[in-house]
User: What shape does this take?
Amino acid sequence: MFKIQTLNNISLAGLERLARDKYEVASELQQPDAILLRSFKMHDLDIPDELKAVGRAGAGVNNIPVDKMSDLGIPVFNAPGANANAVKELVVAGMLLACRNVCQAWEFAKNLEGDDESIHKQAEAGKKDFAGFELPGRTLGVIGLGAIGVQVANVALKLGMNVIGYDPDLTVKSAWQLSSDVQQAVSIDDLLSRADFVTFHVPLVDATRHMINAERLQLMKDGAVILNFARDGIVDDKAVSDAIKSKKIHAYVCDFANGLLKSHEQVITLPHLGASTKEAEDNCAVMVADQVSDFLENGNISNSVNFPEVVMPRTEGYRIAVVNSNVPNMVGQISTVMADANLNIIDLLNKSRGKVAYTLADVESEIPQSVINGLKAIDGVLKVRVI
Assistant: This one.
C-alpha cells in the first residue's frame, strides 16, 4: 500500500481518485511515498528517504525546492491548465472593473448620505467622474501563452478585442489551441508599445522579476491598464504606482495585496483569488492525483516540472524504473547490469530533461535484488524502483 501525505487540504474530488485498497492518505504520515500539497512551503522540510513523488495541486511550484527534488531523483508534478478557466474569468473581470471604474464608483455610491432623493441627485451628479471605456476595438497584450494565456487570448477575441501575444517558448500543444487571429509580438517591448491592456501569465523566475519596470512603463500607451494574476514580483509595484500618479497608466489590477497598493484609488488588489473556485480546486486535485498514482503504480510521468514526459504502456513483463544523472553511457550500463543477470528486455524507454534522465524497462522475468543493487551501484544513479 502506498502512503500519501497531504500538507494542505486537497479537494475530495482528487483524493477519491486514490483507491483506499491501494493508498493510505493522511496529513500526518511517517515515510510517505508521495506528498500532495497546494501552498505549503516545502523548502525547510526534511525530505524522507522513501519519498518518490511530489504533487502540487496547482500550476506554480515556487513553494517546492524543485532543484533539490531533482538531485534526489524525485519528480515534481503540477496541474497546468486545471485552473485556467478560473484565472481567465478573473482577468476578464479585471479588465471590466478597470475600464468602467467599477470599484471606484461602487465606493462612491456606498458613501453617499441622505434620503433617497438626495442620494439619487448625488449619484447623478457624480457619475461623470467614473465614465469609462469599452473593450471592443482595444488591444490586449498577453505575455505567456500557456494554458491560461491561450484561454485569455481566445476569449478576448470573442469580446471584440484585438490580441497580440508574446511567448518565445510557445509549445506545439498551446499553438494548436491558440486562435490564428492572435497577432505575434516580436518582443516584450513591442507588445507593450501596442497594447491598451497587458496581462501576464508567466512564472516568477529571475528573467521575469520586475518584467514591468519604470523603463518599460514609458514604452506603454498613455492610459493603459496592467493586469497581474500570475505571480507577485513580476510587476514593480512602486514603478506602476508612480506611473498611475503621473497619469501615464490608467489602472493596475493584481491578485497580490500589499501596503503600497491596497489603498491606491486606481489599483484593484485582490487576495490571490485566481484559482479560488471549487471547480479549479477540484480540477487541480484530480489531475495531480491521477499523475502521482500513475507514477507510483506504473512509473509513467506526465506534467512534471523537472522530469521528462515518459509514458510506456504496460506489458506482461516486470517493470523497473531508474532515475539517474543525465550523463553519457547510463543506458548502456543499465542494460549491461540486466543482461549480466540474463534479464531479457521486452520494452524500454529512456528520456532526459536537463540534468535528469529516466528509464522505464519491462523485462520477461522477475527482477532479483542483485540487479537492483547493481543498478544502485552505478555512479550517477539516483533512484531504482521495481514497479
